[in-house]
Structure formats: structure tokens, C-alpha cells
Amino acid sequence: MNQLTRLLEAALFSAAHPLGMAELRTLEPAATPEEIRAALDELRDIYQNGGHGVELVELADGFQIVTRREFAEQIALAQIIQRPRRLSAAALETLAIIAYRQPVGRSEIEDIRGVAADGVLRLLQERGLIDVVGRSESLGRPLLYGTTPGFLEMLGLRDLNELPRAEELSVALRPPEPATGP
Amino acid sequence: MNQLTRLLEAALFSAAHPLGMAELRTLEPAATPEEIRAALDELRDIYQNGGHGVELVELADGFQIVTRREFAEQIALAQIIQRPRRLSAAALETLAIIAYRQPVGRSEIEDIRGVAADGVLRLLQERGLIDVVGRSESLGRPLLYGTTPGFLEMLGLRDLNELPRAEELSVALRPPEPATGP
Amino acid sequence: MTTFETAEFGGRGSGLGNGTPLNRESRTPNSAVDSGFVVQLEAFSGPLDLLLHLIREQEIEITDIPIAKIAEQFLAAISQLGLNQAAEYLEMAAHLLRIKIQMLLPRPLDDREWEDPRAELVRRLLEYEQIREVANWLARQAEWRSDHFPRGYLPEPPDAPPPPLVFSLPDLMHAVEEVLAGIPRADIHRVVARPLDVEGATRRLRALLETRPQIDFREAVGESPTVADVISTLIAVLEMSRLGEIRLQQAQPFSPVEIVRESVDQAA
Is C214 exposed, middle or buried (0-12, 13-18, 19+ CB in 10 A)? Predict the structure, then answer.
């Protein structure tokens, strides 16, 4: 394996997502695209011909090393992939707003964070941290969200009043005032 | 590469944490520990002699494929992975105390280090290395700190038992008591 | 910046502390304290760290510290290192002096009754040194880890239950801070800049042009103009020029813009 191929293998192995040509080039700016191509071909051949358990695949957004499909079931059965996940910053922030402002509708959350919330809401609901707790009386009767007992359990709290600075923060976490005109 | 080696390679690629013998055995219950050992040796040799960008390492109680050190700088520079920032001596000492004495309160940490600990505690908490794990029953019910899964992850450890044990330290863990009472 | 601020402590036995490549590189030889040994600044994480450094540097037996000498060196070091403002260091200095005095007191005749005033300090130093050893181990482990990246991409196992979640109250509170930091405050939008005064600028221009047929733009904006003044004048000039009241001319590119009064009848 030449040095560039080794570098690409290390990078592709450690990357959390497929790497495109542009990213691969930043790894070794001295290398030409042709050299990188050649190194990727070498890596693919080594995995292929050396009978490895992994392979190099080219996806729409770049190259990635993945485990061969034939092993997927055995690995899944052994449950060795499972590991605790941290909530993303977006999910945590949404959860924070719901915790302090419940019951709260999607549009209010979006006003506060300034970004769409549906994906995050679905995730939090799937994870059993929030749930629909009612419908607003306002136009379109939007769903209102609140935290679940599972949420309290994860934090080791007995009830919502044990959230730090509950009163103060439920006031502070308000959507911004609409900007005043000129 | 034999079929077991390929399976182990695929499994080690699928896990972000080291896999111990027990986990590896669940992958292929028919294989003996000796066969698994032999397959791991084969995999290690292939990475070593084939001049790969990754290597198989044996950590305190498990095996893991990791990138070779020589590529760390380039991969980090290309921003494919973010390297954690290094911790100061103060942070490391505080972390050491918490790791061994948890659950432990601030004042005990300050007694051992001889300096105020609040800033360091906040930093370690923000970095997800320690967390509040409870409150002491003593006066003022001070907060008690413990290490998090993120702490283990930073060190590549599976659990706290992998920290050096008392008898491995060159300084006695329980220093001799003063000859006479207070 | 790139080195661990972890001290390497004295070679004692063959424990984990040995073979540590981490030494205190910021301990530059710029401040020799006492005779021959070198301390340096910043890098001490506390009074025990400094004390231990003094002891190890001179290969003093920790259980038999020459307290008078060490106290003196400690005082010299903190004043040289500018640490004599820090309460923790002063407290330790006072403690050392107290031990020094206790050592001078006559011992009781029955030696068994005598309690070594240094005992508690020795206990603390040993305990601290042990923590230091663990801290070094942690640093090495973290260093190794940060040079050997694990697999980054984690495939979701098909049909497996979602992985367990970890999150905690501090995570939530951190998120609260993030949200609060992201909420634009209403008063940021209320720009209280001085309003433009185009009318005033127009009046001033007309007054100036009454006295002279031609002025340059710099005169027009007046002395020490604000941004609002410049913009007001510019708008006034453009408006007056549009109305044919004035004409703008430039002798050559980049030379000052001259404002020239048009004939009176046109301006009317």
C-alpha cells in the first residue's frame, strides 16, 4: 500500500460520513485527483482481493468504507453496535424549551429557535421524552407538546418544579418580539 | 483472510468501542477462544504487514481498530475529525480525584489539591467529563460529582476498573497515617 | 499551549509515572530560585504542586522535610513567580512557617508523646503526589486516544431498538443557555441612531452657496461630521442636484467633489 492509500484508508475509516473528492484532496494537497483516484482504486482492490470483511463503496456524496453486507446480520445479532447516544444540540434545546414552556406548540418553538422543529419533535417523541398533551385553541388548533414521566426519570427529578430556576426560565424562554419597523 | 477473520474485521469496523472476548464470541458461538485469538492475530498481521493506515490494538479489555498515529495530524487538519482539546494539569488532577473518589464533593477536591475548584469543575462539566451525581447528606447538602461515559470515551476505557489500581501506583494509595493521633 | 501542563514527578520506584514524556515545558529556566535549581512560572497548578516541585528538585526525603529551608524557598519562589497575591499560596506559606516554629519548640522529655508537626503536610503531599500520578496516566491515555481515531461511521443496526440515551440536567441547562443566547433581544432591533437631517443639510448648503458660488463637499458637511451628517449632506446634495439647484463637478478623478451653484432663476 502506498503512503497516500494508507492515509486515505485512515481518513475514510475515521470519518463519520462519506468523504468527497474535495475533502480527500485537503488531506494531501500535493496529490493530484488522478493520484487520489489511483489510491482509492488500490484500496478497493486490496479489500476486494485480500478477502476483507469491509469494502470501499462510492456513494452519491463520496467514498466510504462499509462492512460487507453478508456480516450485517451476525453483527446485529451480537448487538455490539449499541451504545448510548447523546442528544444533539438541536434536540436538547428543543427539549429545554418544552420543559420550561409546556404546553407549547411547534410554532412557538420554531419562533424561539428560529429553525424548523418537526424532525426534532418527532425524534424526542420517539424517544419518549415528550408527547402531545393537547391542542391549542388558536387557529388551526395546533398540537401542544409537554415532557413525559420518562423525561423526569432520565433526569432523576420527581416533578417539573425540581427543574432549576423553573419560574425564571419559563419567563425568559419566550419567542423574540417581532422586530420593530423602521 | 479466513471467514472468521473477515467477520471479526467487519464487527470491529462496526463498533466504535473496543470489543472484548465475550462480545467477539457472541458473533460466532461455534468458534473457540483460541480460534478467535488466532483470527485476531491474523488481522493484526495483515494490517501490520500489508502497510495499512489502521491497526488493531488491544486495550485494557478489548480489541479495537484505530488509525495509525502518523495520520492523526493530517486527518485532524483536514477537519475530518475534531480532536478534543487537551486538558490542563488542574483539570486532569481534578478529574483524577473525581475518578477515584466519586461521588465526591467540591470541598474534598479542594482539600486535596489545595486550590479552589469551581472553575475547573464547571469546565469539566461543560466538556461532559463529569456530572453531578447527587447531594451529600452533610451540612449544606453540597453537590457530589462523578465521571460520565464521556470520560471513559475520552480515555478509550470501558469502565472505571480499567483505571490504574492502587498497587500499580508508585505512590501508596493510602498514605501512612501520622504516627500519633491528632 | 500544545503541551500538557502536567508535571512529571520525581522518580520513585517503577510505577506508572515512569517513562512519562510529559514534562513541564513551560518551566523555562528564567528564574533561578536559590542556588542552582530552576523553577518556573505559570505552570504550577497549586501550592502543593510548587512545594512538591521544590522537594523533588532537591531530592529531599518527603518524610523528613527540612522545613525551615523549604519554607524559605517556597516564599522566595512565590514572590518571584508573582504568586504571592494568590490566597492559596499565601496560606501554604503561613502553614509552612507555623510548622517551622512548631519544630523549634522544645520536645517533651518522653519522645513518644512528640507529634511531628510535619506529619499532616507529608500526608497531604503524598496524597497529592498520588493524584498527580493518576493525572499523568490520564493525560497519557487521552493523548494516545487523541492520536488514534476510532471508527467514525456507525451504521445503524437493522431492526434494532434505538440505542440508550444519555443526557443529564447539566446538558439541559446548557441547552437553556444556548437557547437564551440565541433569542434576539428586542432592544437590539431598536436602532437609536441619530436620525438623518436632510432638511437641515439642505438649509446649510443653501446658506453656504449664498455667500459663494462654489464649495467643496468637505466644507458642506461641516466640522467633525458624524456619519449621519455626511449621509444627510450627501442626500441633500443629490436631491438639490436632481432639482437643478446645484451642479456637481470634479476637476479630475479622486479630487474633491465641488458643489457649484446653478443660476438663481433655475434654482427657484
Answer: middle
Amino acid residing at C96: L
Picking from C45, C127, C168, the nearest residue to B175 by CB comes out as: C127
Q: What is chain B's alpha carbon radius of gyration, rounded to the nearest angstrom?
A: 21
Work out the minimum CA distance from B57 to partner chain A, whole angstroms. Answer: 14
Grid cell digits, residue A84: 448510548
Domains of chain A plus CATH, in order, are 3-77 (1.10.10.10), 89-173 (1.10.10.10)
Mean predicted lDDT score pLDDT of chain A = 86
CB contact under 8 A, C14 and B17: no
Kindly report whether the peptide bond that precedes residue C253 is cis, defined as omega within 30 degrees of 0.
Answer: no
Chain C interface includes B11 (CB < 8 A):
no
| Exposure string for A143-170, b = 16+ CB within 10 A, e = fewer | bbbbbbeebbebbebeeeeebeeeeebb
Question: Looking at residues A114-140, what average pLDDT do you find?
Answer: 88
Q: How far apart are the first and last CA of chain A?
A: 65
pLDDT at C49 > cutoff 70? yes
Beta pairing, strands A85-86 & C165-166: parallel
Q: What is the pLDDT of residues A134-160, one digit of tens each?
A: 998 888 888 999 999 888 888 878 888
Distance of CA A101 to the CA centre of its chain: 24
Shortest CA gap C183–chain A (Å): 6
Taking the CA atoms of A121, A126, A129 and A134 in sequence, report the sign of the dihedral they define: positive
The three cell numbers of residue A21 are 473528492
Put simply, the answer to whether A83 touches C184 (Cβ < 8 Å) is: no
Sheet (strand B130-135) strand order: B104-105, B143-147, B130-135
CA distance B121 to chain A (A): 18
What single-letter amino acid sits at C31? S
Q: According to the model, what pLDDT value does residue B160 have?
A: 85
Is the preceding omega at residue B103 within 30 degrees of 0, hence cis?
yes
pLDDT tens sequence across C68-82: 899 999 988 888 877
The reported pLDDT for the residue numbered B65 is 93
Point out the residue among B10, B23, B81 whose CB comes nearest to the CB of A68: B10
Q: Is A29 on the interface with B (CB under 8 A)?
A: no
Phi then psi for C96, rounded to 5 degrees? Answer: -65, -40
The 3 state secondary structure assigned to chain B is CCHHHHHHHHHHHHCCCCECHHHHHHHCCCCCHHHHHHHHHHHHHHHHHCCCCEEEEEECCEEEEEECHHHHHHHHHCCCCCCCCCCCHHHHHHHHHHHHHCCEEHHHHHHHHCCCCHHHHHHHHHCCCEEEEEECCCCCCCEEEEECHHHHHHHCCCCHHHCCCHHHCCCCCCCCCCCCCC
Cβ–Cβ under 8 Å, residues B71 and A8: no
Q: Any CB–CB contact under 8 A between A171 and chain C?
A: no
Q: Kindly report the number of other CB atoms within 10 A of residue B19's CB atom.
A: 25
Taking the CA of residue C147 and the nearest CA in chain A, the distance in Å comes to 11
The span from the CA of A142 to the CA of C35, in Å, is 78
ipTM of the modeled complex = 0.66
Cβ–Cβ contact B82 with A under 8 A = no
CB atoms within 10 A of CB B107: 13
